[in-house]
Amino acid sequence: VQLQASGGGLVQAGESLRLSCAASGSIFRISGMGWYRQAPGKERELVAFITNTGITNYPNSVKGRFTISRDSSKNTVYLQMNSLKAEDTAVYYCYAARYTGIDYWGKGTLVTVSS
User: Fold this and answer.
1) Is the separation of the CB atoms in 1 and 24 below 8 Å?
2) What are the C-alpha distances in Å from 76 to residues 1, 20, 21, 101, 112?
3) What is the pLDDT of residues 39-48, one digit of tens each?
């Protein structure tokens, strides 16, 4: 499975940004997709996840501001990020969970929020 992420960039605090992640290859191996992020000097953390059945999961830090959605016909997930804060600045990684075995990771996309 290959993951192609896009949509990062520089925005000001309070603005919005949408990330996209398209999966290709052996899609049947995937049980769900999501996003992690890693800020400088910090550990990678889960941002959002959506299962193949549409169940979503968010940490409290982004709940109510970020929304993950999927277009199954395009094998693509989207992360709509609203009311961005400076602390949302990080490299965002698309990730696909496998039913079994090692998960798939895409290359990161940088999101910078200026205050």
Assistant:
1) yes
2) 13, 7, 5, 21, 23
3) 999 999 999 9
